[in-house]
Amino acid sequence: MMNDVRFTLPNATVLASASLKIEHTSAPLCSGQGQFHSPENSRNPQPYINVTIDQIRAMAANPPSVAKESAQWAIFSALLSRVHSEQRAHGKFYALWADIDEPAGLSMPEIAMRAQNALEGAQVIGYTTRSATESKQKCRIIVPLAEPVSGDDFVRLQRIFNDKLAALGVEPDRATERAGQVCYLPNSGDFYDFTITTRPVFSQSVWGAEIEATKQQETSNHAAQNVALKAAKARAINRIASGEKSPINAFNAEFDLPTMLERFGYQKRGNRYCSPLSQSGKAGVSLTEDGKRWLSAHSSDAGIGKPNSNGTSGDAFDLFVFFRHGGNADAALKAAGEMLTTQNGTSITKANQRDYAQSQADKRTEIAGFELTRSKDSEKNFNEPAALFDFSKFSINGDLEAMKQKMLNDVFVLGELALLGQITLIYAEPNTGKTLLTIRLLIDAVKNGQIKGEDVFFVNADDSYNGLIQKAELMAKHGINSIAPGENDFNTKHFLDYLDLMIRQDSARGKVIVLDTLKKFTNLMDKTVASGFMSKARLFTSKGGTMILLAHTNKRRDPAGGLVVGGTSDARDDADCVYTLDEIEKPQTTKTVLFENKKARGNVARQAAYTYSTEREQTYEEMLDSVTSLNEKEREKVAREKALQDAREKDKPAIDAISEAIRLGFNQQTELLKKAYELSGISKKLLNKILKQYEGSSSVEGKEWASERGGHNALTYQLHYGSIIGATSREAAEAGMRQNC
User: Using CB atoms within 10 A of its CB, is residue 401 exposed (0-12), middle (13-18) or buried (19+)?
Assistant: First the structure.
């Protein structure tokens, strides 16, 4: 066995090997640049590229230094796919890896040594991540394999590897146990260190006993799950036969939640579970006492269930929606309805449809005073009514004067964003300030005499207990009523019943109801439910009431960087006014946000901008008092900044490709566009447009590079920011690419 050789390079202490070549290290593996690199990317499809273990080893010794958005990654499989299920079913893997985000005070070489011990002395390639610091050496460990393994074996080996690291005091990110998880390759930041050890290449036979035990446990778990699922389905069928009409209720009542969690990849550790989406690898999921709901502290689970003060909660059907149907509640509902059947084999959906059709065919109904009966001969025809019918009964012509008396003047209840007597819907990302600004503007409206505090009811269903009391005290100073689920017998499930009472008693006039957040009162993913809720809200406003609805946007933005509102379109289709609230600027102590109108009825503002303090030690009241409305000139400046941000986000793939090409030394226009095209797959025509668009002096906002005329009148480009690390000429760049690709 060869000895390791230790030597020093600038800013990095390294451990290198005199012999680098090992078996299978030249196999081409799936790779790409930037998180959106994929042939399936609708805006910028790019074919996957290849990288080898040998090239990764060379990159560790001589890393590039690029922004993470354009950094290279690898999946250690020969299959060109980022789909977990495809990699697990068809992948051929040549390496294991570990991702250490919490090094617990250990240095990267120390972590690499513990990994080597977990591998019974096998070879490892270790390197710090771009965000690592000397005091917190986040790192990745790559373990070349002596022989390629299948996707199933790769997942098993990853679990064993992570378990062994954890037992040695190194807590890994369990996301590496997903077959399609990408590993970002060496990329130098402020602190960089790497290790390559000269040890035998790892063979899975070393862990023969552990692998066999894992397989037996998987077989046992799978068999137990199948038995449990069959029993659950049988119980559901019996439940349907006894009169259950809801597929969701049948699903949740009969499908065992622990079985469903494990079925969808949650790993049980003691009495808790680790989410398959978790980046920390910690077990943050628990069950309620009755075992019917799960509670998750994983932020990665936020898109599955419903948010609460401690994270997210959900039921078995929520898991079914997310993991089996990609978050499409309609598709999941349909699948559950078809999956669960009556005793004679009829799906619950079809049985419900037949029951409804039969009830409609059999019953006699009275509509507008005319009795109608279904024909015996055809369900499509009616018998002749006793009197001729037309729509004159419904005409409002004779009621116009009385209705005009009930009309509300155009009174603003939230700055110039929301009018009395309308439904206003505001979408924003969490922590943008939608609650803070809504409270501030309501208080201002009360102070200005536009509305009465006692007529305002702020329903706070998205806050901690302390936050609830804090906000309620501030609003109470101005007479504004605070309402909270579970307090004084208020129940969100009965909200529509409360509205219905006010509608029937004609007591809605002048009342302002704020719902924070809308998701707690209706299912925004269900078209029928969301539409029904908005219909009731419309009746409430027709009686003179006002509703302000606060809702969340999706975590991911659209390709142009814009906010994507959550749920189906029914809520925003049925609202009078719709706004998005977006963060424009977030310095250390002040945040700037912009309201943008997406739908308007009445003379409401098309845009409104505010700033507020984000000082850490301040009270909520101090933050509330810091809210400042920007004047027209300031607002226009903020709007321009947002437009620039959105445009730059849309152009980002092209900007990154051009920047990387310049960084590599391809700085003359023709060869620059050619290299940028090779890196990104974006058309040269578009790249040339972006090249011109972002060219200019560093003193001009939004410009990324400058150009100057060289020999033969050729344009040469140079980046504005930072020092260019690495190649300074085309020849050096090509040599570096051959070594580091």
Answer: exposed
What average pLDDT does the segment 521-538 reach?
87
Q: In what order do the strands lie in the sheet with 49-51?
A: 49-51, 29-33, 72-75, 183-184
Task: Say whether pLDDT at 221 is over 90.
Answer: no
CA of 608: how far to CAs of 47, 578, 580, 640, in Å? 42, 13, 11, 13
Output the pLDDT for position 246.
65
Residue 243's nearest CA partner among 362, 125, 343 is 343
Cα 588 to its chain centre, rounded Å, is: 25
Structure tokens at 524: 């925004």
Q: Judge whether 226 and 330 are in contact, CB under 8 Å.
A: no
Domain 5-202 CATH class label: alpha beta
Tokens standing for residue 479: 């007479």
- Which of 66-70, 185-189, 339-343 is modeled with the greatest confidence? 185-189
Q: From 600, 188, 190, select the one nearest 422 (Cα to Cα).
A: 600
Domain 212-339, what fold? DNA Primase; Chain A (3.90.580)
Fold observed for domain 418-630: Rossmann fold (3.40.50)
pLDDT score of 371 more than 60:
no
Q: Output the CA angle 93-53-7, nearest 5 degrees.
A: 140
Torsion (CA) 489, 493, 495, 498 in degrees, nearest 10: -60
β-pairing, 715-719 with 705-709?
antiparallel
Strands (E), 616-711: 628-629, 705-709
Confidence of residue 737 (pLDDT cuts 50, 70, 90): very low
Q: For 194-207, give one letter per residue: b (16+ CB within 10 A) or e.
A: bbbbbbebbebeeb
User: Hey, which residues does 718 pair with through a beta bridge?
Assistant: 706
User: Looking at residue 249, what is its pLDDT?
Assistant: 75
The 3-state DSSP class for residue 59 equals helix
Is the predicted pLDDT of residue 374 greater than 80, yes or no? no
How do residues 460-491 score in pLDDT, each as one tens digit? 998 888 888 999 999 999 999 999 988 888 88
Nearest one of 55, 231, 226 to 144, comparing CA atoms: 55
- Residue written as token pair 């199948």: 226
Q: Residue 358: is its pLDDT beyond 60?
A: no
- In eight-state DSSP terms, residue 386 is S
Q: Among 40-44, 300-304, 356-360, whose mean pLDDT is lowest?
A: 356-360
pLDDT for 570-617, tens place per residue? 888 889 999 999 888 666 788 888 898 999 888 888 889 899 998 888
Cα angle vertex 562, ends 557, 565, to 5°?
70
Residue 444 is encoded by which pair of tokens?
A: 């201002």
Q: Write down the CATH number for the domain with range 651-740.
A: 1.10.10
- pLDDT for residue 738 is more than 80: no
Residues 6+ apart with CB under 8 A from 706: 695, 696, 697, 698, 717, 718, 720
The span from the CA of 230 to the CA of 624, in Å, is 55
Distance from C-alpha of 313 to C-alpha of 290, rounded to nearest angstrom = 14
Report how far residue 383's alpha carbon sits from residue 374's, in angstroms, rounded to the nearest whole number: 7
DSSP letters spanning 582-626? EEEE--SSEEEEEEEEEE-SSS--SEEEEEEE--TT--HHHHHHT
Instruction: Please say whether the beta carbons of 369 and 363 come within 8 A.
Output: no
5-202 and 212-339: identical CATH topology: no
Q: For residue 605, which phi and psi values (nearest 5 degrees)?
A: -70, 140
